[in-house]
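re: the backbone from monday

yeah here it is again, tokenized this time
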């Protein structure tokens, strides 16, 4: 013992020296009996989630974030950005004021840097008074984006690569006898809520809400090939070797039997033979197939009023509304190259909104839902509520679209198809003033799900 330390102890009264010795002994005993910090809680006798993931190479990337014991009692699952060093959301064109609810589509790598990221979004409204009535002209904007990082902090964001264009999607003000059932909608003229998605053969389709053209239809859902309205998109896809025929050469309104006066937020997806379908309603589950020349045909003319969503939401049903958020993607439940995709290991998945309103403020709860990849496209599972790291609930977060980060036709698959280890870019609006995105491993989105009744033996991993 050092002389200085011996002298310091010698001056302490005997009773206090005994108290210090006992206290020190108890502290050392406690530390000795505590579990080692190097002993993983996910070992062979620990959390069973690792046994599912063992040997997959995902332990560091996923398990520690999504199955840690400290997250077990959280109501919501926090999704973290794959590319952001802090896990936070990333901004889209942060200097464009009044542009919100973005839908980002990512082109194949062969299209080249600066031409891989395409965005459409809602633009600022233009107010007018026409014949003494308030009129709000809606608009959809579009351009190419390029990935950037802020100096020092290395925070990713998407900056404008080309001019932000107002897309040519003209609309006319409706005459008085064709007005909306809800008078508030008489003010709104023009396109809104745009969403981009790829078909497997590379058609970049744009779906949006627009002023109706038919009697008794206030607002309808329209579709058009984005190459028709976004300057440079057709050229960029051709550069990458993608030049499928343009099927929707002009604004095409999608009219179904029993059409509502106001239609919003349909989710397009591809069927088992790559046919174009639209998931129109979540409860009851209404799906329509697009038939060239015949518009839409119902998959089930009389769907049941209760389904997996009503079972899982349960007691909350009397104060919520269900809305689609994103188009649906196709995912095979293995890592790329580790299995052969088929109808038994592949599902459709997308994000839905559960809208709580009225409340002290509007709130959209987000959940990932999976569907069977074959007709009649039953619900398979529903995730826990989701929140994006770096957001709060003070402002409504409105999720718009999902897209594969590096779409490819490798393995004979199309641009709408991915695997568990592929990254999904999810884009969303922050209230009605900002745009952001988060990039997430598909596997992150497909964990913490409740399996629907009748599919108890089904596993997403």
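seq for it, each position gets an aa:
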């Amino acid at each position: 013992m050092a002389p200085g330390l011996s002298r310091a102890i010698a001056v302490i009264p005997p009773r206090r020296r005994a108290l210090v010795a006992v206290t020190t002994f108890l502290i050392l005993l406690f530390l000795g009996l505590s579990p080692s910090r190097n002993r993983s809680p996910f070992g062979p006798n620990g959390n069973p989630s690792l046994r599912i993931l063992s040997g997959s190479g995902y332990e560091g990337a996923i398990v520690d974030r999504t199955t840690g014991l400290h997250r077990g009692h959280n109501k919501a699952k926090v999704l973290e950005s794959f590319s952001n060093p802090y896990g936070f959301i990333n901004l889209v064109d942060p200097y464009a004021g009044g542009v919100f609810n973005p839908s980002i589509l990512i082109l194949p790598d062969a299209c080249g840097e600066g031409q891989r990221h395409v965005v459409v979004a809602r633009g600022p409204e233009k107010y007018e008074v026409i014949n003494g009535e308030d009129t709000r002209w809606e608009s959809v904007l579009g351009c190419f984006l390029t990935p950037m990082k802020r100096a020092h902090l290395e925070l990713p964001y998407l900056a404008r690569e080309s001019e932000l264009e107002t897309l040519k999607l003209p609309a006319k003000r409706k005459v008085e006898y064709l007005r909306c059932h809800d008078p508030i909608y008489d003010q709104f003229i023009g396109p809104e809520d745009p969403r981009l998605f790829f078909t497997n053969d590379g058609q970049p389709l744009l779906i949006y809400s627009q002023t109706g053209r038919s009697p008794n239809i206030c607002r309808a859902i329209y579709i058009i090939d984005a190459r028709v309205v976004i300057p440079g998109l057709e050229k960029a896809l051709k550069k990458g070797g993608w030049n499928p025929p343009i099927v929707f050469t002009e604004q095409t309104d999608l009219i179904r039997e029993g059409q509502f006066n106001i239609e919003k937020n349909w989710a397009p997806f591809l069927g088992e033979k790559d046919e174009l379908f639209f998931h129109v309603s979540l409860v009851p589950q209404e799906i329509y197939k697009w038939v060239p020349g015949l518009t839409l045909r119902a998959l089930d003319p009389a769907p049941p009023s209760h389904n997996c969503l009503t079972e899982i939401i349960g007691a909350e049903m009397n104060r919520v509304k269900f809305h689609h958020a994103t188009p649906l993607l196709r995912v095979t439940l293995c890592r790329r190259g580790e299995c052969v995709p088929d109808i038994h290991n592949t599902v459709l998945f997308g994000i839905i909104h559960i809208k709580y309103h009225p409340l002290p403020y509007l709130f959209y709860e987000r959940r990932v839902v999976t569907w069977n990849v074959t007709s009649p496209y039953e619900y398979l599972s529903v995730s826990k509520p989701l929140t994006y790291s770096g957001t709060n609930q003070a402002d409504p977060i409105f999720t718009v679209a999902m897209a594969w980060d590096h779409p490819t036709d490798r393995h004979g698959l199309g641009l709408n198809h991915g695997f568990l280890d592929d990254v999904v870019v999810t884009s969303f609006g922050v209230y009605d003033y900002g745009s952001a995105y988060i990039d997430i491993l598909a596997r992150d989105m497909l964990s913490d799900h409740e399996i629907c009744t009748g599919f108890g033996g089904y596993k997403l991993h």
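Helices lie at 3-10, 14-33, 48-53, 59-66, 233-239, 308-313, 442-445. The longest helix spans residues 14-33.
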